[in-house]
Amino acid sequence: MDSAFVGGAQPSDGLEWYREDPFANEHHTHWHVVYPFSGIPDPEDPTTSKAQDRQGELFFYMHQQMLARYDAERVAAGLPRVQPLADYRSAVAVGYDPGPYMRGQGFGPRPAGARMVNIQGTSVSDLEGFRGQLQQAVAALSFNALNPAVAIDQVTLLGASVESDLAGIAGQSDGADRFYGDLHNTGHGMLASASQGNPGVMTTTEVAIRDPVFYQWHKHVDDFYAAWQEKSGARSLSDRPLVRLRKQLDPAQDQAASPDILLAFEDQLPAEAAQDLQAWARSAFGDGHWDDDPATFAGTTDSLETAMLQRRLTLADRVTTVPLEHLTHRPFVYVFRIENQVDQPVEATVRVFLAPKDQAADRRAWIEMDKFVHKLQPLEKSVVARRGSQSSVVRKPAVMRPEVLKEAALEITQQRLNEMVADGLPQTIATRLQPFVGRVSAPQEVFNALGSPRWRTALPLFQRHGVILPSEQPARPDQNDTPEEIERAEGENYCTCGWPYNLLLPRGTEQGMPFRLAVVCTDFAFDQVETDESCGSLSFCGARDRYPDKRDMGYPFDRPFTAPVRDTIMANPNMAFRDITIRRTPDVVDAVEN
Predict the structure, then answer these.
(1) Which candidate in 181, 378, 401, 471 could, as Cys together with 408 as Cys, close a disulfide (CB 3.0–4.6 Å)?
(2) C-alpha 95: how far from its chain's center?
(3) What is the per-residue burial (b if ≥16 Cβ within 10 Å, else e) of 447-468?
């Protein structure tokens, strides 16, 4: 990697490739556009703002999943999992230098040993007060500092209050801001201000995940989420559907296996699978093959494969290019075999999770890989195949090698501005663009100066006159938009929101890193939420009206179990798991390139 662009922790931990991944950074940015803490304009009354459905819970869950994935990469690199930054007076041992290029964009380096600093009238002592009050609220499951007290019976209220967004307790109860404050956002600001010269990357969602301290801070934030879950207690799991997946466990060797969880590489599937994937799966693994030994199934695999691709990233000046190393994987297919044990149709929500095997006893280590609905006929021994690219967590369409590898930028010359005015650009917009003439600017900076309606008016002219460079600027609805504009913008945002497909699998190791893959079936009749969404990441980005799953996010790993994780899976017929490996190999490049 070229240090002129890529920043890093000192000394390097070897994970800069992950933190600097442009698609992971875009995901974090885009999520916060879809779920801004200030809310979105209410289509019924655009002069007011509203939070999205279950926004506070999704704030917790999406970041918790980013942490689980980052921890998996740390374990693969031989590093311990992230420790929370819970002591606001402590020195942050690992510094972060964003590199010369990012410093030129106005971001300062944070030296090793720096501490949080007071900002904007809020002191570190104030933040410690917010922390203490929030911890007491979680312990009591109630905001008892208020009169009357407000019960925390839904985690979305806690998430909204910790972030905090406009649906949090500080925005709902008079005086709550003095007690519970703005912990998450203020912490970001205090850590960004600990940098030298200019604020560090923690100041903005566009690049915050590049700094290792982002994960320490969010592990601390996630501890509030986990504490609420623990305090809320375990579930009985008795509302499971009457379906069965077979599994075996050798407790002495801690070896898990299942004949009903199968994997295959897409490039090894027979021709008929390309024509009808489900028909091929039923023919190969169902019907008369239901009880066959999985070892006899041709074309299945116990090991998934990843690789690092070497590409080049064009920077904002559209001249400078730097090497880019990013993760990819060999496309694969899941095959699940599920038996309906009742003489009536059953619709099951199939939930797929993955965890490093040596961390699988910790429910917080499990990564959601997919979630979908499958209908079983009465007493059916059903087989369903599912491509990794169909995952409910990834952005759609799922692209393994995204073509747009560019730092977005706008370069406005006076000549181009004059040409746009002659082409119909209103003078009011031209006046707002004048300060940007003669320099390269980030689209977000120009967007903020224009506001949403003016941005949309100018965008076609930018493109027609070569002012805007290739990027996928999310639309940010504001209070000047019409209900129709708000609805259109939200639809565009949800369809392009989600985790990058190339990062669906953790990287693993060259020798093969052990993972545990789990499948949990729940009753869709209970889970179902009416929604017309069919695009984007339904797990991470939800839907415009309601989050498309009634269960708490991350179910069943969202609560403590009454027994160890592996014993819980063994005790429930609707659950199964198996051990696999993820191997990093250069051979994957050929499969991806072709």
Answers:
(1) 471
(2) 25
(3) beebbbebbeebbebbeebebb
Q: Which helix (H) or strand (E) holds 371?
A: strand 367-376
What letter would DSSP give residue 77?
Answer: T
* 367 vs 41, residue with greater confidence: 367
Q: Give the ranges where 286-331 is alpha helix by DSSP (H).
A: none
DSSP string of 542-569, one letter each residue = --SSS-S-SSPTTTTTTS--SS-HHHHH
- In the 8-state DSSP scheme, what is residue 577? E
* Nearest by Cα to 139 from 28, 40, 228, 256: 228
Least confident of 247-256, 303-312, 339-348, 452-461: 452-461
Residue of 269, 85, 228 whose CA lies nearest to 558:
228
- The three-state secondary structure class of 373 is strand
Determine the average pLDDT of the residues in 428-432: 93
Helix (H) or strand (E) holding 584: strand 575-584
Dump pLDDT digits (tens) for 175-234: 677 789 899 999 999 999 999 999 999 999 989 999 999 999 999 999 999 999 999 999
| Residue 164: DSSP 8-state | T
Residue with the two structure tokens 């290019």: 321
Do 212 and 191 form a contact (C-beta atoms < 8 A)? no
Tokens representing 13? 């931990």
Burial 338-358 (b: 16+ CB within 10 A, else e): bbbbeeeebebbbbbbbbbbe
Task: Report CA-CA distances (Å) from 108 to 104, 114, 202, 205, 213.
Answer: 9, 13, 10, 15, 14
Q: Are strands 367-376 and 381-387 parallel, antiparallel or unpaired?
A: unpaired
Homologous superfamily in CATH for domain 8-232: Di-copper center containing domain from catechol oxidase (1.10.1280.10)
Cα–Cα distance between 40 and 456 in angstroms, integer? 17
575-584 vs 303-314, strand pairing mode: parallel
Q: Per DSSP, what are the bridge partners of residue 353?
A: 368, 518
Residue 404 has pLDDT above 50, yes or no: no
Q: How many CA atoms lie less than 13 Å away from 115 in the CB half-sphere?
A: 10
Cα angle 246, 252, 257; round to 5: 25
| C-beta separation of 161 from 169 below 8 A | yes
Enumerate the domain spans of the chain: 8-232, 243-313+325-395+500-593, 409-469
Closest residue by Cα to residue 85 from 187, 16, 163, 13: 187
* 243-313+325-395+500-593 CATH, one of 3.20.20.150, 2.60.40.1520, 2.130.10.10, 1.10.10.10: 2.60.40.1520
pLDDT in the model for residue 408: 54
Q: Do domains 8-232 and 243-313+325-395+500-593 have the same CATH topology?
A: no
Are the CB atoms for 117 and 199 separated by under 8 Å?
Answer: no
Strand, coil or helix: what is 359? Answer: helix
Omega of the bond leading into 161 within 30 degrees of 0 (cis) = no
Q: Which CB contacts under 8 angstroms, 24+ apart, belong to 136-145?
A: 137/161, 137/180, 138/224, 138/227, 138/228, 138/231, 139/227, 139/231, 141/228, 141/231, 141/232, 143/169, 143/173, 143/176, 143/179, 143/180, 145/176, 145/179, 145/180
Token reading at 251: 């407790």
